[in-house]
């Protein structure tokens, strides 16, 4: 099964801007990998909350649509809220 997530480039970096994103129901994330420059992105909480319950989300290659380009990635790490069903941050690796 193939998953596609639409995302936007994140220009503000840091704890305060990440908190503001989470309050607006957005998820801050980063895409990184060897030999490529990392990309800070943000996407809607609703885009990921249901698909992250499938095991294929963690094992298969995902597609992230960023500024009209499709980037193939794998999930490296995910931080969840302590007691709410929310995603706080996702680390993706270039596939």
TrEMBL record:
Q: Does the keyword Membrane apply?
A: no
Alphabetic keyword roster:
Ribonucleoprotein, Ribosomal protein, RNA-binding, rRNA-binding
Gene3D superfamilies xref list: Ribosomal Protein L25, Chain P
Family annotation (CDD domains): Ribosomal_L25_TL5_CTC
Q: Which SUPFAM superfamilies match?
A: Ribosomal protein L25-like
Task: Give GO terms for biological process.
Answer: translation
| Organism domain of life | Bacteria
What would be an example GO MF term here?
5S rRNA binding
Residue ranges of the Large ribosomal subunit protein bL25 L25 domain? 5-92
Which GO cellular component does the record give, naming just one?
cytosolic large ribosomal subunit
NCBIfam families this protein is in? bL25_bact_ctc, PRK05943.1
| Function according to Swiss-Prot or TrEMBL | This is one of the proteins that binds to the 5S RNA in the ribosome where it forms part of the central protuberance.
Q: Which family does the UniProt entry place this protein in?
A: Belongs to the bacterial ribosomal protein bL25 family.
Known partners and oligomeric status: Part of the 50S ribosomal subunit; part of the 5S rRNA/L5/L18/L25 subcomplex. Contacts the 5S rRNA. Binds to the 5S rRNA independently of L5 and L18.
Q: What is this protein called?
A: Large ribosomal subunit protein bL25
Question: Could you tell me which species this protein originates from?
Answer: Shewanella psychrophila
Quick one: which gene encodes this?
Answer: rplY
